[in-house]
Specification:
About 30% of the residues lie in helices and about 20% in strands. By secondary structure, the protein is of the alpha/beta class. The structure holds threonylcarbamoyladenylate (TXA) and magnesium ion.
Length: about 325
């Protein structure tokens, strides 16, 4: 059920959960300081309680109320990339950030999103937690239709159109004097390097103790079985997810992600297509993964591996 941003503010203040648009994906939002409301999010999503939530803020004053220690270069990263798809893991002010928000970890994840509607709402409500607005394990929601599919037509959602990025924020953490990537996302390692002066290392995906507990879980998965191709098209006769410049002679149905040189656009479409496979009851699909492992293609490849439930052997860059 679409609600205005004013109605959303009232609902949030009353301890309700509302789906809000961001530039990355839709978020399932609740007031950070209302543990009862935060708990509803875990229940609604069917999310394990050891998987903490990102705090969203509208300005630097709100940041100073939840974190007090900032590693070197935090300020310059904020200046370049906020508002935008960059999340920091920072030492939490434990007295001010409820344990349920951070799964009792000593850190919080925080970002300032770019969509004008959520920024306006955040100005009135203060910090909001917002995981992606999908049932746990499913592809993230990038439109009102996706939110309604997972949470029902009566669920309150602010319509911000189709999310411009279409994939989640990049998550950074600071370790051994360097910034590192805990989750690939809408901001590429190379874009971060223009500010940091070095390309941040990417944390191995399947370690026993990932920095982000969410990296443990299967994600972004449609019901359809995805087969990832590495060596070029092998003549698969079912549905194909690929690129318009390529030919897939035996394919019955082809979904074009984007022109081959446009990973931004491929990410913008990815979750929409993954959900579309289920809407069309497609059971199997071959995915053309013959693209370079650089820039936002790294994010594309990582999300496809997760959607296919491939054993990544801890190495994201092959
Ligand atoms: O773009 C985004 O980041 C979207 C939009 C809605 O802002 N949000 C999002 O949230 O992707 P979610 O919950 O789907 O993914 C958050 C990830 C999870 O892997 C979680 O484990 C990690 O961030 N995370 C959150 N808080 C953390 C914390 N305190 N310490 C370590 N990891 C944390
Ligand atoms: Mg998520």
């Amino acid at each position: 059920m679409k609600v205005t941003h004013k109605e959303a503010i009232d609902l949030l203040r009353a301890g309700e959960v509302v789906a809000l648009p961001t530039e990355t994906v839709y978020g399932l939002a609740a007031c950070m300081n209302n543990p009862g409301a935060v708990e509803k999010i875990y229940r609604l999503k069917n999310r394990p309680t050891d998987n903490p939530l990102i705090v969203h803020i509208a300005n630097q004053e709100q940041l100073s109320t939840i974190a007090s220690q900032f590693p070197p270069h935090t300020d310059i990263l904020i200046k370049h990339f906020w508002p935008g798809p960059l999340t920091f893991l920072l030492g939490a002010d434990m007295d001010r950030v409820p344990g349920i928000v951070r799964a009792n970890l000593p850190n919080i994840a925080v970002r300032m999103p770019q969509h004008p509607l959520i920024l306006e709402i955040l100005q009135s409500t203060g910090p909001l937690v917002a995981p992606s607005a999908n049932l746990s394990g499913k592809p993230s929601a990038t439109s009102v239709q996706d939110v309604e599919e997972d949470f029902g037509l009566d669920f309150p959602v602010v319509d911000g159109g189709f999310c411009s990025k279409g994939v989640e924020s990049t998550i950074l953490y600071f370790q051994e004097n360097l910034w590192k990537i805990a989750r690939l996302g809408a901001l590429s390692p190379e874009q971060l390097a223009t500010v940091l002066g070095y390309v941040p290392e990417i944390q191995k995906a399947r370690t026993s103790q990932p920095i982000c507990p969410g990296q443990h879980y299967r994600h972004y998965a449609p019901r359809a079985k995805l087969y990832l191709g590495y060596e070029g098209y092998m003549g698969f006769s079912g549905a194909v997810l690929g690129f318009p410049e390529r030919e897939y002679p035996n394919a019955h149905q082809i979904f074009h992600l984007s022109p081959i040189n446009d990973p931004d656009l491929a990410l913008h479409h990815l979750y929409h297509y993954l959900r579309e496979l289920d809407r069309q009851n497609i059971e199997e699909i071959w995915v053309d993964c013959n693209f370079p492992r650089v820039g936002l293609f790294l994010t594309l490849h990582e999300r496809l591996q997760r959607a296919a439930n491939v054993d990544m052997k801890g190495d994201l860059t092959i």
